[in-house]
Each structure stands twice: as C-alpha cells, then as structure tokens.
Amino acid sequence: MINDILNTFSISEQNPGASDGVQFISTSGAGINSWSPVDGHKIAGVQTVTKAEYDQVITKAQAAFRYWRTVPAPARGEIVRQIGEALRVHKDALGKLVSYEMGKSLQEGRGEVQEMIDICDFAVGLSRQLYGLTMHSERPAHRMYEQWHPLGIVGIISAFNFPVAVWSWNAMIALVCGDVCVWKPSEKTPLSALACFRILTEVFNKNQLPEGLCSLVQGGKDLGEWMAEDPRVALVSATGSTRMGKAVNITVAARLGKCLLELGGNNAIIVSGDADLDMTLMGVVFGAVGTAGQRCTTTRRLIIHESVFGQLTEKLKNAYAQLRIGDPLDARNHVGPLIDKDAVAQYLQALDAIQNEGGTFIVEGGVLEGAEYASGCYVKPCIAVVENHFAIVQTETFAPILYVMQYRDMEEAIAMQNDVPQGLSSAIMTLNLREAELFLSVAGSDCGIANVNIGTSGAEIGGAFGGEKETGGGRESGSDAWKAYMRRQTNTINYGKELPLAQGIAFNI
Ligand code: NAD
Known about the structure:
Layout: H1 2-8, E1 14-15, E2 18-19, E3 24-25, E4 31-35, E5 42-47, H2 51-68, H3 73-102, H4 106-126, E6 134-135, E7 142-150, E8 153-157, H5 165-177, E9 180-184, H6 190-206, E10 214-217, H7 221-229, E11 233-239, H8 242-254, E12 258-262, E13 267-271, H9 277-289, E14 299-305, H10 309-321, H11 341-356, E15 360-363, E16 382-385, E17 401-407, H12 410-418, E18 422-423, E19 425-429, H13 433-440, E20 449-452, E21 464-465, E22 468-469, E23 476-477, E24 486-494
Parallel strand pairs: 1-5, 8-9, 8-11, 9-10, 11-12, 13-14, 13-19, 14-17, 16-17, 19-20
Antiparallel strand pairs: 2-3, 2-10, 4-5, 6-7, 7-24, 15-16, 18-22, 21-23
Helix pairs in contact: 1-3, 3-4, 3-5, 3-6, 4-5, 7-8
The structure holds nicotinamide-adenine-dinucleotide.
C-alpha cells in the first residue's frame, strides 16, 4: 500500500531536500531518514539543504515576491482554489502517507488533508476581502484610509504532529495576501511535506508560475535557526515546542523582525456538577487519547467537581479499558503510536515524575510489546490523580497522559485551569448558563480557545487559532489572522487647494 502511495508522489529511496515550487533542486546536505512509528520501517530519505542552497532558495523567493505582489489578490486566490482542488484529488493518498509517517489514525490523516482543503476555500474567499478601514480626516478636502500590503517572504517552521495542515494554514493565507513562502517542515515528517510539494508543483507548472513562490527546504534545527536569523525573511511563523519558540523569538526580535508563534498547550476541561457526563466522556476521551495525546490541543487536565468525580472517573476507567491500541491505518484502532522512541522515553519519565511527586494512577500506563508493537512506539493511555501544582502537571508531556483533580467551587476551578504557564485551549462541560458565561467572561479562561460542551481539541479553520502566555500569542487560520501576514499602511490624500496641517498648527512661509 505505502509503495503505491510513494509512487503516486514520485518519492524514491533518497529525495532532494528542496523545491522552488516548480522544480526539485538537487541538494547536497546530509540526509534525513523518515522512519514510520507504525511498524518501525524506514520509509525513505531526503537530502537536507546546505546554507548555500538555502540562500539560493531565498534569492528565488525574493524575485518571486516582486512578481507575486503585483498579481491581483483574487487572481492569487484562483491559484489557491486550484491547490484546494488538487488536494481533493489526492486526499486519500496524502492522508494515508501522513498516517503512516506520523502515526495518527487514518481518519485523522484524512481529516488533516480536509483541513488543508478547508483553508484553501477560506483563503479563496479572503482573496476578495483583505479590507482596511476608512477614517474621517480632521482636515477639509482630505481622505484618510488604511490598506494592507504583503510583507514579503514568510518562513514557515512546522512541527511533526500536523505535518501538512500547519503549512497550509500559513501558506494559503500568505499566498492570497501576496507573500511568498519558504517551508521548513519537521525533520520527523519530511515525506509528507515532499508529497505536498508534488501536488503544488503540478498546479504551479500548469499556471506557469515562477520559481520561488512557495519553496520547501528540508533540514533540522540549524535550518530553522538560519530562517530566524535571516533579515530577508519578513515573518517567521513557527509551530512547535515552547523551547523552540523562545529561541526563535529571541533571534527574530534581535533583528526586529516579525514572529508568529504557535507553541505548546496544557489544556484543561472543567467538568461541572451540572455537566452531561455522557457527552463529557466522549469529549474527554477523544481529547486525551486522539493522535496518542500528540495534539497541541490534547486534553491533559480534567478539573472535576467533587460531586461527580467518582462517577466520571468510573466511566473513564471503563472507556479506557475498551480502547484499542495498534496500527493507526486499521480503522478499528483508537490509538496509534507515539512519533519515536525519544517520545516514549519522555512518556516513561513523566510516569516516574508523577509517582515521585505523589500522584496515583487510576489507569496504569506502560509501553506495549509484541509483534504488533514492534516499532517500540506504542504506549498505553493512562490517567493519574494529581495536584495542579506538581511540576510534571505544569509541563506539557506530548503523550496520552490525563491528569484528574477535584474542585469545590467554580472560581477555584477556573483558577486551577489558568494556573499553568501555557494558554492554548480550554473547555467547560456544564448545562448551567451562569457557569458557562463566567468561564467565557473576563474572569474566566485565559486561553486563546475557550469552549462550552466541546472538548479542547479539534478546532475549525474559520476561527483564529492560537494561545496566550507560553503558547506564544500567535493567531493563525481564520477570522482576521491574515493581518499577521501583511503590513498596514495609513494613507492621507489631500484633494483640496490648501495644505492645512494636522492639529491646526500654523506654519507660514
Ligand atoms: P519542536 O519544537 O521539537 O520542533 C518544531 C520545529 O521547530 C521543527 O521543524 C524543528 O526542526 C524546529 N526547531 C527546533 N528547534 C529550533 C530552533 N532553535 N530554531 C528554529 N527551529 C527550531 O516540536 P515538535 O516536537 O515537532 O512538536 C511538538 C510541539 O509542537 C508541542 O509542544 C506542541 O504543543 C506544539 N504544537 C503547537 C501547535 C500550536 O498551534 N500551538 C500546533 C502543533 C504543535
């Protein structure tokens, strides 16, 4: 199956590490191999880019920008529309490759490609908007308005867990805004990125677009650092760990560049005494074990009212006992593998830390063994009773570990929910209007995403996505997130015969 998919995308054993959007450039950096966490097999390798090759790509991107910014935005939208159509054609194959290379379920792999299609549709509509405001000038016969111009090169650094969607959230919006993009995908998922570029190349060539409009460069942390340091990259949009975001932020700030950061989360659901517990169960289990706990919006903490704590934890134990762990390409399984053995080691360290800090397990964790789990990356989703202040609870562990704790009153629950360094996603399960509104109020959740009677994961592209505090403060995708990809210009036009100064200042010559 996977060989057919690799053939579809012309992926061979060793692949070039860069594309300027219309051709794949021969590259000479050291290689990266992509290993599937599903079965532990090496899928294929890519060559990374050297600094000189990276510079070549950036030079092409600069030239492409001079052309692309002059193309009318709706015409840019037409190209994005065609990319969306091409993704529809390849949805199944790309979804399978994502699932095999990253380890998420096939449903989620396909869902990720659907998200790419959705953002293309959104961006096409946006290409006829991108509007600024008109203001009233204080001076007679003057008109004042603002307009939005493209920024230039957008450097996209992405994480392994959404190997294709995060790129499209950035790139499709950036393209309609008139920017050009250079993408450095995660070194753990280089082939999914390559497949996206095979699809993109077809569209670009059909439309005889110039090189450099959207480029792909493969490499590790060093390559990300080159982008962060590079003053030619007008905006660095980086998705990944808080550790990475802090490093990128410091480097970009030192050159007064622009940064858009989408970093780690530590997401909680408050379960009120007035919650619908069946609905809660569904939201919590999918939120905690979906993508094997490797979503930035994964439900990590459950803050449960003391009146329903026993009842809900019993339901959770029963639900966890029914979870099927195994090959994510088999639709009967609920939970696939972690990305690699390093992630498994971090999961095991977290289990130790929970115990050392005094936590107890109501569903035990552990690494699965046997032929079906030969990659060594399959772990058991677990549930631990903890206190919110434990150092391990304050940290994002990218694995299916769910922390449960109790509360007495809603103010206390909200304080616990907010009392972590991260601020991405949050939710409350309640049928009580007062509780729901308090949670959404200024005295409520401090996160970028706050939901009622929905879990923490599974955002739609129509809203702005991102979070506060150590999550980085960036917003991507829908609403007016496009403004981060453009620069605002205020224009004042005098159509009169006098030159009055603002604030009534008299200046006679
Ligand atoms: P990571 O930080 O290890 O790597 C992310 C990317 O950053 C990779 O491409 C990597 O090569 C690059 N990188 C690493 N160090 C760098 C540096 N110093 N300078 C420049 N680039 C650097 O993250 P990961 O393990 O791939 O992904 C998991 C993390 O991503 C989790 O913390 C998760 O919450 C977060 N994430 C956040 C969002 C969001 O939208 N908020 C979405 C997906 C993932």
